[in-house]
Design a protein that fits this description.
- The structure is a homodimer.
- With about 325 residues, the first copy, chain A, is α/β, with parallel strands linked by helices.
- Chain A is about 45% helix and about 15% strand.
- Chain A folds into 3 domains: about 45 residues, Orthogonal Bundle (434 Repressor (Amino-terminal Domain)), CATH 1.10.260; about 130 residues, Rossmann fold (3-Layer(aba) Sandwich), CATH 3.40.50.2300; about 140 residues, Rossmann fold (3-Layer(aba) Sandwich).
- Chain A contains 13 helices and 12 strands.
- The radius of gyration of chain A is 26 Å and the shape is elongated.
- The interface between A and B is large, with 50 and 50 residues.
- β2 of chain A pairs antiparallel with β2 of chain B, so a sheet runs across the interface.
- The structure holds a DNA duplex (30 and 30 nucleotides).
DNA sequence: TCTCCTCCTGAAACTGCTTTCATGTAACTA
DNA sequence: TAGTTACATGAAAGCAGTTTCAGGAGGAGA
């Protein structure tokens, strides 16, 4: 296991100073062509590659972006991450994932990132940060970009959840559904952004304007866990007064709803129309109508904003709005 | 934006040397209690936190594990990643994700990781590495742990794909299916490990032993892409001589198969039994029988092996075998 | 009282590259 | 020919800690 060559070894071999070798690597035009050639040969023969962390240290830059997320709970995170990853890797930035599973962990990560700098910037995916944490971030010089949850003073990619709820309502209403139901994940984890309530608001407001109130037994907010939510859904659907359509706040819940409907002998979309939110890949496989929120695109956007911010630290804060659109599929097909 | 304090500032304030401050942080028992108290106060008052990258540099250790994967193509990667992440974060290791989308990118990452050390170890998820790359890794001192694809000289988490294929075959055979079909992703991406062929082998061998040969029109190997695979599946199923069961090499393909069956008016499991491979979370939602390969567990295992390896670099190479098991659900329920 | 030992502590080396600053040289201009 | 300019280059500082090594102080035992 021979020790890896350093820039000093190259310099010695080529008979120049390390500074000149560094220049050959970073701004070759500054170095005399002959000497440059000699240095290049030395680099080749020693198979020298600059150690990335040494470069980072000297340059005070890491080429590394952190992503903090209440992770691994929903496929939607994965798709956002995919977008982020594609942009970062094309710019030779590394992606470090901080999966948050508790408020303490979140605080720990933020403290660590703020004080013991390891990343150039932080993308916060669907996190709900409390004021103390926000203050910490704001008084640090760590660039932050939020996705889904807007935060004063930081770049953000915003999803207009109310509008999405209204879109779902409109689609169902126009299909002839007038007895709506709602299934959503309750905000149990305080560190995660919760869009459920906003989506419900948009949804129920639309129907209210049409003179239709959501019946109390027609919405369910609970844990996004297979057994618990299945019970809740079955209870809502297994009643003579069941809704004729369901808007679920995520595609996973929507898919579970379809499954429950099947168990009860209800056919989708005839007995029950179902509409989800997210448009994860799986939605297409199971023929689910859903609100597309450009998951991958939002990741791309966030990463691009972050890289822009790093280039121009002083440019004004930017907010990007994601355009929602309805992906119509079988679960809301015209009733036969 | 005041400059962050360094260990030197603390040392000056406390009237000691930086070495002593470092000792207070890392092995407090070595320092005289009085002096220790004084230093602690200095640390408090300056709000000093050691910069992680400086520590890493001095210690020659990064507390950072890289994961290289043909990523974001299958939910199964996500679940493995979840397992890896949970172990690493509990040990305060960072997780850096390198998503590979082409052979060149793979080579680039490997070169970079080998020469310009940025991680303590590398977990290779379902990657197929060519011999040149393997050699590079072997002659470096970077610890590597492979998942799914075994590699001589490295720790590995191994999935016995043939056995899984045979398990699927056995389950279907015992349900009374004697006209099997197979749907699998073809090995188009040379940088990704391809287990499809092994699963097919185990599957068809089982039936062969029972005197049943897979008909040529009853297996399809193609791109795991919605349209292309849907066409292939429809073609296979829309024929009087269609199979009475399908083993799909991944759950996503299995779910698509169920969808196609529905389109053709076939009911699952009565007209067509379907069994998948992976047992991703979604499998439960859509009631798919599948071969569970402990995805999250395999991630946990890989991460643990890696941390062990870092502690004991010279221990012999270890191979862990994942126990497969059948997750029986609705798509192979007893025929009524 | 001398020697040995233990416990602390600071100096200095080490990690590996970038970048500024100062200097030297050669070419060009007045 | 002297002065100016442009270009090329090396020395050295800086990044921020850890760790080894040597030595001083003080206590215990002979």
């Amino acid at each position: 296991m021979a020790k890896q060559p350093t820039i000093y070894d190259v310099a010695k071999l080529a008979g120049v100073s390390p500074a000149t070798v560094s220049r050959v690597l970073n701004s070759p035009s500054m170095v005399n062509p002959e000497k440059r050639k000699r240095i290049m040969e030395a680099i080749e023969s020693l198979k020298f590659t600059p150690k990335a962390d040494a470069v980072a240290k000297a340059r005070q830059q890491f080429k590394r972006i952190g992503v903090i997320a209440p992770f691994f709970t929903e496929p939607s995170f994965m798709e956002r991450l995919k977008g982020i990853s594609s942009v970062l890797s094309s710019q030779h930035y590394e992606l470090v994932v901080y999966a948050v599973q508790s408020t303490e962990e979140l605080d720990g990560y933020v403290d660590m990132l703020v004080s013991s700098k390891r990343v150039d910037g932080l993308i916060s995916l669907c996190m709900h940060l409390d004021q103390t944490t926000v203050n910490k971030l704001q008084s640090s010089d760590l660039p932050v970009c939020c996705v889904e949850k807007d935060l004063t003073g930081f770049d953000a990619v915003i999803v207009h959840n109310q509008e999405g709820g209204a879109m779902a309502a409109k689609a169902l209403y126009e299909k002839g559904c007038h007895n709506p139901g709602f299934i959503g994940e309750a905000s149990t984890r305080s560190y995660a952004a919760h869009s459920t309530e906003e989506r419900l608001e948009g949804f129920s407001n639309f129907f209210k304007e049409k003179g239709i109130e959501l019946e109390p037994s027609h919405y369910w907010l609970g844990e996004n866990n297979n057994e618990i939510s299945t019970q809740g859904i079955l209870k809502m659907l297994d009643s003579p007064n069941r809704p004729d359509c369901i808007f679920a706040s995520s595609d996973t819940l929507a898919i579970r709803t379809i499954k429950c409907a099947g168990q009860l002998g209800l056919t989708v979309p005839d007995d029950l129309a179902v509409i989800g939110f997210d448009d994860i890949e799986m939605a297409e496989y199971v023929d689910l109508t859903t609100i597309n929120q450009g998951l991958e695109e939002s990741g791309v956007l966030a990463a691009e904003m972050m890289l822009q911010r790093l280039k121009h630290p002083d440019q004004p804060v930017r907010k990007s709005l994601i355009a929602l659109k309805l992906s119509e599929r079988g679960s809301t097909a015209v009733q036969t």
